[in-house]
Amino acid sequence: MTPLLLIAPLPPADAAGEYDWAQAGDDGIALRNQGRALLALLPSSAEVMLGIPSAALSWHRVTLPKGSMGSASKLRAVLDGLLEEHLLDEPEALHFALEPDAKAGAPVWVAACNRIWLRSLVQGLEAAGRRVVRIVPEFAPQPADGPPMLLVTGEPEAPRLTVCDADGVVSLPLAGAGVALSDGLPLDTAVITTEPAVAEAAEHLLQRRVPIVQSPQRWLQAARTPWELAQFDLAVTGRARAGKKFASVVQTLRYAPEWRAARWGVVALLLTQLIGLNAWAWKERNALESKRQAAKAMLTATFPSVRVVVDAPLQMQREVASLQQAVGDVANSDFEPMVGALAAVLPPGKVPSAVDYNAGQLRLRGLGLQPSEVSQITGAMAPRGYNVRTEGDLLLVQAEANR
User: Which residues contact 206 (CB under 8 A, 6 or more apart)?
Assistant: First the structure.
């Protein structure tokens, strides 16, 4: 379902008061329903778009200096300086929004409206469970290559002509100044529409038939433009909204009285976990120390000649190797079993040109093995307790220490 489009009431209207609303069909284009109702009685929709009437906006064209768009705070300060002399209010009291795809170094349009009024509307809607997903203007300047737009709106006793072109947005009474303004426009190429209530006045003064577009349909057309007024501190999409939401949640959890018991519970849980982890670590250290002492006791009991224990497993291995040599037994690291194991896995026709054995390491030169053959030999020798690697044209074979 498409978001509900709400038309912002002009001040001093209450944020919880009545809103004109419109909703498009599933295609997002055709008008499905429209009306006017209090905030509490609006059609059900968790997400809404907020439309800002033309009377609440002013338009300004500025050229942003290079490097001004590095951050939102810097850009806001630059806009304050550029627009200060063109505004009736202080820049701090206004909300600014740049045109879509604005770039530094080129003229850009800036929309301005009352910040407190707009913020109160957004906060009031969200407090009522209506998340504002987008804020759109009623009218906006047109691209330089687009046709001008002439829209006749208002009531029969006070029709107004709004002109939207590359020079901005101008809204004037239809009679007098409005007609004089329209005389300088290319009416043959302009897109002209009128609302039903002022259609007769528009056709009489413009001397032509004017297509009729109902106000809700016009608002839905405005919602399809790329303009997005929710910028800076009123950003309602993407990472900015997620950041504001996260900060609000953290602030509530940290200071709200109703969360005091939960905060104390979290502290107690963390302390319990910390104490438990330390107790578990102490138990594991004691178990590890007991195993070390048992290994030392086994070493000294099996080999009484060992007086100082530094590394019990390594010293045990050395003593077993010495005992094997003393009784004439063959160890895994001796020359004969090592050569026998290697001969069983060497590719056919691979004969070394030189063989050297020293300190439990076998070196063979001149085998001319391919990388795939070395990998095959390494995989075959590993289950037998041997490590195999190459250094240049040398093949090195050594028994694993833990075997």
Answer: 152, 179, 182, 187, 192
Q: Which fold has domain 335-399?
A: Gyrase A; domain 2 (3.30.1360)
Q: Which tokens hold the place of 261?
A: 């018991």
Residue written as tokens 């303004």? 181
- Residues 212/151, Cβ–Cβ less than 8 Å: no
Ranked by mean pLDDT, which of 5-9, 308-312, 354-358 comes out on top? 5-9
Tens digits of residue pLDDT in 262-299 = 888 889 999 999 999 999 999 999 999 898 888 888 88
Nearest to 111 by CA among 66, 168, 151, 154: 168
Q: Give the number of other Cβ atoms within 10 Å of residue 286's Cβ.
A: 10
Q: Are 135 and 231 in contact (CB under 8 A)?
A: no
Answer yes or no: are the C-beta atoms of 195 and 153 closer than 8 Å.
yes
In 3D, which of 115, 51, 52 has the Cα closest to residue 87? Answer: 115
Chain centroid to CA 354: how far? 62
- For residue 382, what are the β-bridge partners? none
Tokens linked to 403: 């075997």
Instruction: Choose between 84 and 175: higher pLDDT.
Output: 84
Backbone angles phi, psi at 163, to 5 degrees: -110, 125
pLDDT band (50, 70, 90) for residue 61 = very high
**Spatial contact of 138 and 216, defined as CB atoms under 8 Å apart:** no
**What are the residue ranges spanned by the domains of the chain?**
1-140+225-256, 141-214, 257-328, 335-399
Q: How far apart are CA 198 and CA 207, in angstroms?
A: 14
- What SS3 class is residue 38? strand
* Residue 59 structure tokens: 């338009």
Whole-number CA gyration radius for the chain: 41
Positive/negative CA dihedral, 195, 27, 169, 163 = negative
Q: Which string of DSSP letters, residue by residue, matches 184-234?
A: TS-TTTSEEEE-GGGHHHHHHHHTS---B--HHHHHHHHHTSS-----GGG
| Range 1-140+225-256 has CATH code 3.30.420.380 | yes
Burial of 384 from C-beta contacts in 10 A (0-12 / 13-18 / 19+) = middle
Helix (H, G, I), strand (E, B) or coil at 367: coil
The continuous run of DSSP H or E covering 115 comes out as: helix 115-127
pLDDT by residue (tens digit) across 36-48?
A: 999 989 998 878 9
**Cα 232 from chain centre:** 17
Amino acid identity, position 363: R
